[in-house]
């Protein structure tokens, strides 16, 4: 351990707790719950035979992974919303059954673990582990983001026993067990590399498990639901474009979704909520300014009507989008109709065409939201 940086020496120093059968039952239960909570996650423990129950836990921490070796008499562990609120940890737990059997309950599923099987539990939601006989297990706790899986896939992964019934799990689970049990004696930089390797193997095992469950079908259904959400969001925004107070928070609240999910839907389309709203407002302003006529509103009035608070800001973003100021655009469309037709004829575009900026031939057919107020024609 010599040569370790101080922080790493503190993190990687293994420690153990033994709860002998001679301790009073209440003391043993309190000690064990406290040890598991400090080393791994906040849980409640209920020994099957409190008067004769004993257990031992040895822990090792190699940032960002915690590893625990557990030996215990029959026991039930549970994590409830109170525990989740108390420690505020956003972790995943991988439990590898070394000896004995266990039953894991989470997300409406129940899975039985026999020796050599592994299962994931999500510490951000309640779960229960029932060990009806003496057991030995290796527990690996990691940040939920470590596997790089979206929330929808994590929910399909929990409480599913991963045994040696596939070529992938038969190869990886023994390696994971060896790595988890052999990190301690090595120098700190080697242990960190082992931790990264361990996370890579767990990620591969999780991904392979999800593929075998057909989660691509699940993802297709999720994508369909996302598209339906996005269509409703577009319709709502189009209806309220003139509201200068339109914001992601307002939109999310009106649709009963989180702001984070709202942003995710737009990011998957290569844009942002704010950018999409601004583009739609610009399109409506451009269409209105192009109507011309003496009764048309001023540039400032048009901008304000479509939700732009600052005329100067509107002018800047309009020029950035269309290459000219709003006034120049409006003036172009105030030309006499005959002159526009003449120019169109000169351009061989036919008598029904109008000529827009930079000589682009345009028609005034209505376009779908997001496609602009006019369409270019070859």
- The backbone outline, from C-alpha atoms, is elongated
What is the average per-residue confidence, as pLDDT, rounded to a whole number? 77
N- to C-terminal separation?
A: 73 Å
Strand order of the largest sheet: 1-3-4-11-6-9
Strand content: 15-25%
Helix content: 40-55%
Report the radius of gyration as a whole number of Å: 32 Å
Sheet having the most strands: 6 strands, antiparallel
Given the helix and strand composition, which structural class is it?
alpha+beta
Put simply, the count of helices is 14
Q: What is the chain-wise order of helices and strands?
A: HEHEEEEHEEEEEEHHHHHHHHHHHEEE
Low-confidence segments, ≥5 residues, pLDDT <50? 1-14, 337-378
Q: How many strand units?
A: 14
How does this structure look, described?
The chain has 14 helices and 14 strands. Helix content is 45%, strand content 20%. The N terminus and C terminus are likely disordered. The N and C termini lie far apart (73 Å). With 378 residues, the chain is an alpha+beta fold.
Which features does this protein show?
single chain, about 375 residues, alpha+beta, six-stranded antiparallel sheet, five-stranded antiparallel sheet, 14 helices, about 45% helix, about 20% strand, disordered N terminus, disordered C terminus
Summarize the structure.
The chain has 14 helices and 14 strands.
